Amino acid sequence: MKRRPLGKIVAAALLGLLAVQGVDASTGFTQTIYRQNAFSTQQTNYLCTAAVVQNIVNLATGTARRGMTQQLELYRYGRNHNRYDYRNRGVDPQGVEAMLERYIPGSDWVQVSKKSMQSVLRMSARRMRRTGLPAVLFVSGGSHVWTMNGYTATKDPASGDWFSITHVRFSGPLYPDTIGRHGWFDLEPNTRRSSDRFPNAFFPYRE
Questions:
Q1: Contacts 24+ apart (CB under 8 A), 63-69
Q2: Does the predicted TM-score (pTM) go above 0.85?
């Protein structure tokens, strides 16, 4: 029997766990997947992907782990499953996908590449609506990652109707060590920003 996917990973190429959701005539449909004690700060300057995966594992399993020991374990697994052999210490989308599938048993994650930011955000919203898990966004041209914790859409993504994303909620693992650099990296977890400002951080992915 084919397993139902539990989550999706989203990369820009332009590249409790309690879902709070509802419909408001003035704002559209909103979904938020966030728990304060699930958030994880990266323990070194190269563990951003590990911290984001740790955060999502916490959300999926009800745990609240934030320590370096698990982050290093996640990181080593991701590095060993990268698509390319890098001189720097990064983990690429393939490595992050492998981490999530290993540490969230039964889950099936995919990398999504689109030419427009709205296309990526709409795909993320559809998968979040279906699975109840966040997405991963590769931001700053692929040099950093955020957890996409929520969104506001003009229609319910599950309705089958066309919709656009008007606002995005996200958490960056540098917080609170780096707050608001360039006005974006990394703000308070579950920060909400309008999608028309999102290209300031979410721009084309580059290897």
A1: 63/38, 64/37, 64/38, 65/40, 66/39, 66/40, 66/41, 67/43, 68/43, 68/44
A2: yes
